């Protein structure tokens, strides 16, 4: 069987174009969408990633405000900045970039991001709303997976989907998005034991564990769709996913590459979410229901 590579790059361009068009529409309504990225690290690869968000935002016509608080920012300062940005009408979307300084608890801080500005679904309220089907932003990576499935016309309704990983940023929200689409979802984690017991019966397998080579050709059935969310940096600096690509090729019906798969779509969705947040906030202002 030949394995189709599901590249995320062209989809990312389409989503970025959609964000760009929406930013222009908002601008004609007098709104310039603005994304604030709060940073408190001097880690080079994180700063590079933040600058790549800034560049992508600017080319989509979205203001990007990098709020760099330095690598020794305290939890108190971070909390106060997140509260201020949440209350500031000119800011539509907020991201708290990790890693944070040692000892600062990200879980305690994300609750300060107003849910309507929580464009990366970090506030537990966003996950709760997702769980009960109320409007909220899903984490961009989780939504990137469903966007890829939609874009390549891969149905999940009534099919067996296995998600490996149960974090609050990927596995859990993704399982909720898939349930919403009528998939039969099995979530595996580090205590699940032999993964093939679940993955062999899956039409679609999504791996989000951060473990190089966790899923190989022996785990899947012929024709299964494999979505690789994992990003692992090898000692030579190269980036690989969680899937042993060589052994899966020829067995999987389709596979997302790393790099160039889920990760490429994620950033463009942060921009689209920012325009969606800006649109909703401008409607709330008209209705007089803005916080
Ligand atoms: P995380 O918080 O470390 O969660 C990893 C999950 O994988 C946990 O639920 C863990 O199980 C499970 N796991 C670990 N080893 C396993 C094993 N041997 N068998 C089965 N399950 C196992 O990581 P995360 O933040 O969700 O990220 C997951 C991966 O996605 C990472 O590689 C990360 O870099 C990548 N990622 C990519 C993007 C993107 O845009 N492409 C964005 C975010 C994250 P337990 O719960 O039992 O510990």
From TrEMBL:
EC number(s) per entry: 1.5.1.5, 3.5.4.9
One GO BP annotation of this record: purine nucleotide biosynthetic process
InterPro entries membership: Aminoacid_DH-like_N_sf (IPR046346), NAD(P)-bd_dom_sf (IPR036291), THF_DH/CycHdrlase (IPR000672), THF_DH/CycHdrlase_cat_dom (IPR020630), THF_DH/CycHdrlase_NAD-bd_dom (IPR020631)
Binding site for NADP(+): 165-167, 231
GO CC terms of this entry: cytosol
Catalysed reactions, as listed in the record: (6R)-5,10-methylene-5,6,7,8-tetrahydrofolate + NADP(+) = (6R)-5,10-methenyltetrahydrofolate + NADPH; (6R)-5,10-methenyltetrahydrofolate + H2O = (6R)-10-formyltetrahydrofolate + H(+)
Limits of the Tetrahydrofolate dehydrogenase/cyclohydrolase catalytic domain: 6-120
Keywords tagged on the record: Amino-acid biosynthesis, Histidine biosynthesis, Hydrolase, Methionine biosynthesis, Multifunctional enzyme, NADP, One-carbon metabolism, Oxidoreductase, Purine biosynthesis
MF GO annotations: methenyltetrahydrofolate cyclohydrolase activity; methylenetetrahydrofolate dehydrogenase (NADP+) activity
Ranges of residues in domain Tetrahydrofolate dehydrogenase/cyclohydrolase NAD(P)-binding: 139-281
Domain of life the protein comes from: Bacteria
Pathway note: One-carbon metabolism; tetrahydrofolate interconversion
Subunit structure: Homodimer.
HAMAP family in the cross-refs: THF_DHG_CYH
Protein family: Belongs to the tetrahydrofolate dehydrogenase/cyclohydrolase family.
Function description: Catalyzes the oxidation of 5,10-methylenetetrahydrofolate to 5,10-methenyltetrahydrofolate and then the hydrolysis of 5,10-methenyltetrahydrofolate to 10-formyltetrahydrofolate.
Protein's UniProt name: Bifunctional protein FolD
Source organism of the structure: Pseudarthrobacter sulfonivorans
Gene name tied to this protein: folD
């Amino acid at each position: 069987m030949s394995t189709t590579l599901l590249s995320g790059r062209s989809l990312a361009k389409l989503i970025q174009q959609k964000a760009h068009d929406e930013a222009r529409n908002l601008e004609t309504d007098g709104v310039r969408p603005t994304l604030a990225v709060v940073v408190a690290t001097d880690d080079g690869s994180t700063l590079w990633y933040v600058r790549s968000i800034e560049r992508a935002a600017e080319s989509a016509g979205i203001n990007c405000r990098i709020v760099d608080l330095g690598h020794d920012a305290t939890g108190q300062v971070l909390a106060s900045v997140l509260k201020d940005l949440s209350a500031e009408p000119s800011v539509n979307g907020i991201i708290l970039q990790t890693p944070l300084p040692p000892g600062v608890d990200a879980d305690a801080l994300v609750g300060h991001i107003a849910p309507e500005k929580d464009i990366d679904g970090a506030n537990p309220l966003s996950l709760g709303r997702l769980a009960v089907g109320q409007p909220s932003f899903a984490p961009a990576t989780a939504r990137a997976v469903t966007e890829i499935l939609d874009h390549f016309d891969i149905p999940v309704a009534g099919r067996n989907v296995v998600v490996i990983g149960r974090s609050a940023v990927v596995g859990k929200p993704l399982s909720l998005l898939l349930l919403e689409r009528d998939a039969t979802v099995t979530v595996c984690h580090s205590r699940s034991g032999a993964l093939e017991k679940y993955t062999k019966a899956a039409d679609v397998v999504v791996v989000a564990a951060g473990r190089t080579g966790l899923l190989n050709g022996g785990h899947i059935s012929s024709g299964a769709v494999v979505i690789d969310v994992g990003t692992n940096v090898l000692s030579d600096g190269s980036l690989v996913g969680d899937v042993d690509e060589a052994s899966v090729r020829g067995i999987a019906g389709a596979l997302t590459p790393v790099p160039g798969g889920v990760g490429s779509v994620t950033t463009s969705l942060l921009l689209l979410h920012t325009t969606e947040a800006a649109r909703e906030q401008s409607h709330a202002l008209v209705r007089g229901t803005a916080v």
